[in-house]
Amino acid sequence: MGTGVQRVEDQRLLRGQGAYTDDLDVGPGLLHAAVVRSPHAHARIVDIDVDAVLDVEGVHAVFTHEDLSGPMAEPLPLLIPHPALTHGRTQYALARDEVNYVGEAVAFVVATDRYVAEDAVGRVRVTYDVLPAVVGIEAARAAERLVHDDVPGNLGARLEQQVGDAPAAVAAAPHRLSLDLDIERSACMPLEGRATVARWEPALDRLQVWTSTQSSTGVRAAVAVKLGLDLGQVDVITPDVGGGFGLKINHPWPEELLVPYAARVLGRPVKFVEDRREHFISSAHERGQVQHVEVGFDDDGRLLGLDVEFWHDHGAYTPYGLIVPIITSTQLLGPYKPGAYRVVFSSLYTNTVIVTPYRGAGRPQGCYAMERTMDAIAAHLGKDRAEVRRVNLIQPDEFPYEHHLVFQDGRPLTYDSGDYPAMLDKILALVDWDGFGARRAAAAAEGRRLGIGLACYVEGTGVGPYEGAHVHVETTGKVKVATGLTSQGQGHETVFAQLVADELGCRFSDVEVVTGDTRRMPYAVGTFASRAAVMSGSAVHLAARRAKEKALRIAADALEADEDDLQIVDGVVSVKGSPETALDLGTVSVLSNPLRYAFDEASKRATQFSVGDPGRPPVAEDDEPGLEGRDFYSPERATFASGMHAVVVETDPETAEVEILQYAVVHDCGTLINPLIVEGQIHGGVAQGVGGALYERMAYDDTGQLLNASFMDFLMPYVSEVPDGIDIDHLETPSPLNPLGIKGAGEAGVIPSAAVFAAAISDAEGFEITAMPISPSELFALRQAQQSP
């Protein structure tokens, strides 16, 4: 623990030996599915004519909503209810009566291959009565048209939280400012989009599902309920996942139900893999919010009152509840003491793709609001931006710090640990903040425009309710570890092996980790909210401890020694100071399982005739056979990581292009398990943050058509646009909430990106940036507007 161990999964993945869902061979007779999707953002379904499809050679079935019954015909689940979500709505697996966004699933075709299935999709004739579409927050707020007839004002939810009287505090403050800030929609672009394969085994009365998900156990539960199966009849296995980023925590997607449904009906394996256009128009987006800030402060820039209202575009349905805007409303505060605080948000329906968390999950929007506010305060007072932040920071002796708000997990928003002033010192040193004026002046003498930006954030990580782990020592001495959450490239096979090697005392190379397989660990929640290391890492640690305790107990009996006198080093249990008195863990595993039958030399030593005291049962009442440990970790509340980013940019005076000259990150995720992997997470997050700040957006027209639903039009940063090197420093303030002192790190790189780039570009240009992302053409237009009389 604490060392930069090379990732064990990389050898397999880099050599092309990984397997996405689409790569799986699930046996003969595989059928392929394609989906008829609505071309309209809002329309009533008048008729669906499939007659022209039924006689197409190779087509095995066409399903519409009329073909579904029971739970399958009901709306998809609203996964996270909330009292404020008074008008929650979810779609059907296949649209019934009405479609509410371009791309909504209308019919499901199953054929011998994808080519035939796609041809058949083109022959399905759907008659629509097109309705006016509601696109964008402004149109939703106007409520001249409704997405759902039974949702007044397009308002799915309104939630307010407050501490003190913020409006009064703002009004009474010596200084006051108002800001209006926008962030547009964006979306993740995983290597493999949504993908599901299912096989029904009639002889076993059992369903096997392989799906690219962030919650194997969640998909399992949903499939069982919708198909009327017992939970024990469904296995869900997650292969290698080519990126999740929050998109794949939503479950079940319509296809995750329709594929197993079709497999069971047809008695053949069925596969669906979305294509890239389907990903754009029918998966999920995020980020779109309009934010209004009223702030009051004193002569030093200290916050006295903060009053925030924002409007969140959650798309046509709300399967994932209010998680994103709740996170914005609470994480907006960052590392600061806000004085009196009031926040209210409205979550609005539009005829666009649904919103689910995307790496950062509401935090980038909140960070953007708070950090732009800090910069505005500094500009108003003529003070250094870093010093305004410093006077507002929570101090190290104030932890745990209670904000008196409710976080996304329904628990108090209480920061557990941190040292924000020390972090600020580190980030200012990394970018030579105090010396930047000379650097800017030297560039200006050459006709170049440089700007520097700073942004700070706090990230709630490791939310509950729980995760579990199972550690099993084989008779070979190999250690098999299973945890129910899934992996999407985070390095779980490495970090969990590190934890087991440390706690159990085995060799790191002897540990094998399996994730996302309900056959190995049926109880789990999922991979999201930077929770894997905190939740499963803690569970793995505790399970390894249980296995170690049992190993020492068995070895003590076999070696006729006291447990306290034993140690486990490199997979060998020995008496301290007497290394010759020893057993390897494989032998201990043999002894842990008294057998009636001997199958080999090892098992011969563990028969009931050669193990244990004849005066007691071979397996004690309070014990069980096998050398293994199983445990669960359930925290009282989330733990809070934190960080600060700084960037130096150059804006071209003619083309308005933005070039990144330096990027620096200081991050505190508590105790570091593997610094190499944490820094990899930061690099990946920064790359996505650059995309979100400078390139990526979802552009809809007024009719709800997505205008840039391809990589020809949707811009993502290439390696040439991502910083060559990122200056990274770490701060470790261990969390008191879990046995390892861990905090999450998965979303750290992306959270402050919009804020830090807006700050740097504003600094370079001399005027404020209030809408993100920003393109060169938009920056050029802002320049022109500044020059207009």
UniProtKB/TrEMBL annotation:
<dbReference type="InterPro" id="IPR046867">
    <property type="entry name" value="AldOxase/xan_DH_MoCoBD2"/>
</dbReference>
<dbReference type="Pfam" id="PF02738">
    <property type="entry name" value="MoCoBD_1"/>
</dbReference>
<protein>
    <submittedName>
        <fullName>Xanthine dehydrogenase family protein molybdopterin-binding subunit</fullName>
    </submittedName>
</protein>
<keyword id="KW-0500">Molybdenum</keyword>
<dbReference type="Pfam" id="PF20256">
    <property type="entry name" value="MoCoBD_2"/>
</dbReference>
<feature type="region of interest" description="Disordered">
    <location>
        <begin position="608"/>
        <end position="627"/>
    </location>
</feature>
<dbReference type="InterPro" id="IPR037165">
    <property type="entry name" value="AldOxase/xan_DH_Mopterin-bd_sf"/>
</dbReference>
<dbReference type="InterPro" id="IPR008274">
    <property type="entry name" value="AldOxase/xan_DH_MoCoBD1"/>
</dbReference>
<feature type="domain" description="Aldehyde oxidase/xanthine dehydrogenase a/b hammerhead">
    <location>
        <begin position="15"/>
        <end position="132"/>
    </location>
</feature>
<keyword id="KW-0560">Oxidoreductase</keyword>
<dbReference type="InterPro" id="IPR016208">
    <property type="entry name" value="Ald_Oxase/xanthine_DH-like"/>
</dbReference>
<dbReference type="Pfam" id="PF01315">
    <property type="entry name" value="Ald_Xan_dh_C"/>
</dbReference>
<dbReference type="InterPro" id="IPR000674">
    <property type="entry name" value="Ald_Oxase/Xan_DH_a/b"/>
</dbReference>
<dbReference type="InterPro" id="IPR036856">
    <property type="entry name" value="Ald_Oxase/Xan_DH_a/b_sf"/>
</dbReference>
